[in-house]
Each structure stands twice: as C-alpha cells, then as structure tokens.
Specification:
Largest sheet: 6 strands, antiparallel
Number of strands: 17
Radius of gyration: 52 Å
Strand order of the largest sheet: 8-7-6-11-10-9
Shape: rod-shaped
Structural class: alpha+beta
Distance between the termini: 69 Å
Strand content: 15-25%
C-alpha cells in the first residue's frame, strides 16, 4: 500500500515538474527572444546612422568596403548577420558575398520602409531568426534598411543555459516531494487501517448493502449535531431531509433526549418519531454517535415470537428430560425383574396425566392447553409443584385471542418459576370466564416483587434480574391493553398474584393499569 502511494505521488510530482519545466521553458523562450530583439534593434540603430551606410543606401550600389565594415561590426555585436538594403530591398551588405545584390527575404520590410523600427521572427536566407530592423534616413526620407539578426539556435542556447541553472532547484523540489510522498503515504496508511484501495471500495459496497438490508433505520450524527448518513429505512421513517442536516430539525425528541443525557451508549430507549413509538439504540462514535431505531410494534411482535419459540423449546426439552427419566426407571425395574412395580409406576404416570387432562377438559383453546401441559413438564424438571385450578374453563370463542392468551400465561408462568429462584414452591394457574370476559390468575409462593420494581412493574426494562430483562411483562401488558383489558399484581395471603382481565371477544372497553 505504501509503495503504491509513493509511486503515485512520484508520478504526480514528475508530471507537475514536467509541466513546470514546459511553462518555464516557454517563459525563458519569450525572455530570450525579447533580449535578443533588443540587442538586434540596438545594433541596427548604430549601423543605420553610419555616414557611409547612409551614403551607400542613398546611392543604391554595392560597395566592397562597406560590406567588410558591416561584417566587422557583426562580429563585435556577436550577431549572426547584419544586412544593409537599399530602398528597393536589394542587399548592399551581407555575411555571404554571393548573396549581395539579391532581394532581402522574410517579408518584414514593410514597417521599416514606412519609417518604423520593428523586431520580428522570420525566415531569411540563413534560416529562422530574431531580427531588429531600422530604417535608414537621409533628408527626411527612408533610403534603405538595416537588419540585424540572431538565428534561433542562439535563442535555444540561452534557454538551455537558463534551464541548466534552474536544474538544481527542480531536483530539490523532486527530492522534497518524494520525502513528502513517503510521509503522506505512512500517515494515510495509518488512517485507512492499512487497506488497499480495492479493499476500501469493497468495504464501502458492503457497508451500503448492510444498511440497505437492515430493517432498522440507521443515522450517523457528527459532533455538530448534523446527520451525515441516513439509511434507506431511516429515510422512510424520518421527515424528508438531505444530509448533512441538523438532527433537531428531523427528530427533535432524540436531539432533546441526547442533549440531556449526552451521546452515551443507550439501548431500547422509547421515543416517538412523527407520532409513532419507536425503540432507539445509541452508540457513541468520534464525538458524534450512531443511532438505530425501529418501530416499537415490530419489536414487540418479534419479542412475542421469540417468547413463544423459547417456551416451546423449554417445553420440548423438559418433556424429553422427564420422559428419559421415566424410561430409565421403567427399564431399571424390568432389568431387576420387578415388572409389577414397573407397572404400578406406569399406571401412576397415566393416572397423573389423565387427572391433569381432566383439569383442562373445559379449557377449549388447544394452544393454551398445550402450553399448560408443557409448563407442567417444565415444573417437574425444576422441582416445582405446578397446579391448574380445578374450576378453570374457557370457551372456543377465545381461540381468536389464542396468541395473547398464550403470551400472557406463558410469560406469567415463567416469571413465577423464576420468582421461586430454584427453591421448592407452588405455582397455580386459574383460568375463568364469565359474561364480563376472561380472567387469568397466576399465583406463586415466591417472595414477591421488590418495592423498587413494583412502582414501574409494567414499564419496559423494569426487572430485578439485571440488564436486558423486563421486556416480557411489558409486552404482555401492551397486548392486554390492545384488547382493552387490564392487568395488575398484588400480594394475597403471602403469595404473589398476577391477574389479567380481558373483555369478551366482541367488545373492547378502555384499558387501565392497576397495582395493589
């Protein structure tokens, strides 16, 4: 990773250096042209004022002495050529004698013949050159022209000299850039956890896929209280906003809650979002936090499903355990040659089962009967005396509320088992029905609800069993309320009693909570 970043930085630095060299070359080329142009125009002015040059131009005839003098001046000016022409542009002086008497080339004599000094770049008989041209005056009129020039190799020679003088600075810039690239690569490597670019791209793709797959809404908020990330599910539940936008504008209740508590880790915080109850989890992150949330009704439905599944698992495990014990007893008696005693044990089991089924003959909700039978096996495994009141009954009309009945009886019975805390005791379930509805009582001989929990018994998370508990009873209470029922707890003759009253299936009176 570090080597790749260094190479990338070096490529960028080389490209930038080449661009800089090109820009500097263009600048130096312009400066060299300007400098040579000034030298050429200065030399041409001096030559154009020489008396013999003025006389020769006015006469318009060649003069060997004049040509020798001009070439001598060319050497002193370090020019590539000095050409003198008459009014018709015919050469009177030239570095190559064979070209005397021929027309001047380049097409740039218009300005001088009009009385102007010019600096131009044109191609003459010797090649492309920078030349300064000055008119020759006599008696107020132009009688000729002087052209002093420097061929382009001289221009590039000056540029090369300047570039050579700048080469150490270019090398120094490359060296400093290389050191900076190595340092930046190491810093970046530490910041991105030593990941390759393709790994980062894969992680971003996975991150987006996970957010899209979550049924919970997820938002990320920075230290300034602005939402920097909103998942698709969160966007469905929040007001229409586009990150980054203030959390207080999108979800005022969460912003107010965190302003009071600070961005500390929190789980299952009950809030409302656009009038809907939600459960939110908060996880601090780099001065801000990440919050996930979901509809409270969905969470309660899932909790109910998990409660049912756990109840069925406990029932099956308890039945398996008890039946194995009974089979072992019967097998041992038969191996000891005591079939009569084995038969008595078997008859006793059959009788107990028949008696229990007889108790439940008037409870005509099959799932509730199955639950009670499983709880009986569970109680035997725990060493608890589990009883169903003989007068228990329930008509088939309650089958439509079987889920609520199973949830209520299952949770209250399991709580009663836990209240005994592994000690011998009794748990009694009473199920009754009258014209006002159904009544359920679960009574245990445990120590009762602690006073600090009793005041908030049916609120979410209220439990004396530690963190992560106290959701089952709140879920039961919510379902009872949804049917218009009531739920309360009390102490009666040294026993803890939980009572659930449900209205008839065809009515739904207002719900209330009562604790005694």
């Amino acid at each position: 990773m570090q080597g790749r970043l260094v190479r990338l930085h070096l490529l960028v630095l080389c490209a930038m250096t080449l661009v800089l060299v090109a820009v500097q070359t263009a600048s130096l080329y312009g400066q060299a042209r300007e400098r040579l142009g000034e030298r050429a125009i200065t030399a041409s002015r001096l030559v154009a004022r020489l008396p013999n040059v003025v006389a020769a131009a006015a006469a318009g005839v060649q003069n060997a002495a004049l040509n020798a003098q001009i070439n001598a001046l060319r050497d002193e000016a370090e020019a590539d050529f000095i050409v003198v022409g008459n009014r018709q542009g015919i050469r009177l002086a030239h570095p190559v004698p064979e070209r005397l008497g021929q027309p001047m080339e380049g097409g740039d004599n218009v300005g001088p013949f009009a009385g102007h000094e010019v600096v131009s770049v044109a191609r003459g008989s010797l090649g492309v050159s920078v030349r300064g041209k000055v008119p020759i005056w006599q008696g107020g009129r132009v009688v000729g022209v002087v052209s002093t020039g420097y061929l382009m190799p001289q221009v590039w020679h000056l540029v090369a000299q300047a570039l050579l003088s700048l080469a150490p600075w270019f090398l120094l810039a490359l060296a400093l850039g290389t050191v900076g690239a190595v340092w930046a690569a190491r810093r970046l490597r530490a910041e991105i956890l030593n990941l390759e670019p393709e790994q980062i791209a894969a992680l971003v793709g996975q991150h987006r896929a996970v957010l899209a797959a979550l049924r919970e809404g997820v938002i990320a908020v920075d230290a300034g209280g602005r939402m920097t990330l909103v998942s698709d599910r969160a966007a469905e539940m929040l007001p229409p906003v586009a990150p980054p936008s203030p959390l207080a504008a999108a979800w005022p209740e969460l912003a107010a809650h965190l302003s009071a508590t600070g961005p500390v880790r929190q789980q299952n915080v009950e809030l409302t979002l656009r009038g809907q109850p939600v459960l939110a989890n908060v996880e601090p992150l780099s001065g801000g936090f990440v919050a996930s949330f979901r509809d409270r009704a969905e969470a309660l439905a899932l909790a109910d499903e998990l409660t049912h599944a756990r109840g069925f698992v406990d029932v099956l495990r308890a039945q398996t355990h008890e039946y194995q014990n009974r089979l072992h007893v019967l097998s041992g008696l038969l191996q000891l040659g005591r079939p009569d005693e084995a038969l008595r044990v078997l008859d006793a089991e059959i009788e107990q089962g028949a008696q229990f089924r007889q108790l439940l003959r008037d409870v005509q909700v099959p799932r509730l009967v199955a639950l009670l039978a499983g709880k009986r096996e569970r109680a035997q495994e725990l060493g608890i005396d589990f009883q169903v009141a003989p007068e228990s009954s329930l008509s088939p009309a309650w089958e439509r509320h079987a889920d609520t009945l199973v949830t209520a009886v299952g949770n209250l019975t399991e709580n009663a088992f836990e209240a005994l805390n592994g000690q011998p005791g009794t748990v009694t379930v009473l199920i009754g029905e009258d014209p006002e509805g159904a009544q359920i009582e679960v009574e245990d001989s445990g120590p009762g609800v602690p006073p600090e929990v009793a005041a908030r018994l049916f609120t979410r998370g209220a439990s004396s069993k530690g963190e992560g508990r106290g959701y089952g009873l709140a879920g039961v209470y919510a379902r009872v309320l949804a049917l218009g029922g009531e739920m309360r707890s009390t102490r009666r003759e040294g026993r803890t009693v939980f009572q659930v009253n449900l209205p008839p299936p065809t009515t739904a009176p207002a719900a209330r909570l009562e604790q005694v």
